[in-house]
Amino acid sequence: MDDRGMSDxxxxxxxxxxxxxxxxxxxxxxxxxxxxxxxxxxxIWNKEVQGNDKWILQQKLxxxxxxxxxxxxxxxxxxxxxxxxxxxxxxRLEQEYExxxxxxxxxxxxxxxxxxxxxxxxxxxxLKQKSRIKSAEEGDSNSKYFHNVIKEKIRRAHIYRIxxxxxxxxxxxxxTTSAAIDHFSNLFTHTQSDNNLSILExxxxxxxx
Length: 209
Fold this sequence. Notes:
Layout: E1 18-19, E2 29-30, H1 34-45, H2 53-75, H3 79-99, H4 103-138, H5 144-157, E3 161-163, E4 169-171, H6 173-188
Antiparallel strand pairs: 1-2, 3-4
């Protein structure tokens, strides 16, 4: 760089691009660099494989897939396990906030919700990639994988508990269904006494007999 009359501009900001979200001694911060990623692929690709061209290509692609999977778990972590763990932590903090809704518990809950959303987005990205791969390999057949994807979507869309008009949490399919029906029945059902028509008397009639 000196020979070319150039200088390093460096950078401003956090030197780390990723952390595992833990606290204390369990916290891991690192800077993910594309050079590590490229070096990994290059080292795997350059390994000698015996066979014809088609066999060599197939084996190298499989080796790269295994290597990237291992690299991802070591650098980022197990996404699916992290989704379950952060979801449990978020539910625990929700219960704490319901018991004591102070600023500290609210901030902890917001952080847990953000962390859960981050891992959930990563999981959805992985599922979309796998879905495209499976779709290309198997078409639109009712494979076991697509059944699992549908089950996962149904699980996330399922309502496990709701809060009634008195502020009490209700759990269970029958109880939540009954509470929801009662809520909307009361919401859309009005008695005749609720309609106060005396206010219409102040409107001047525009049509005469």
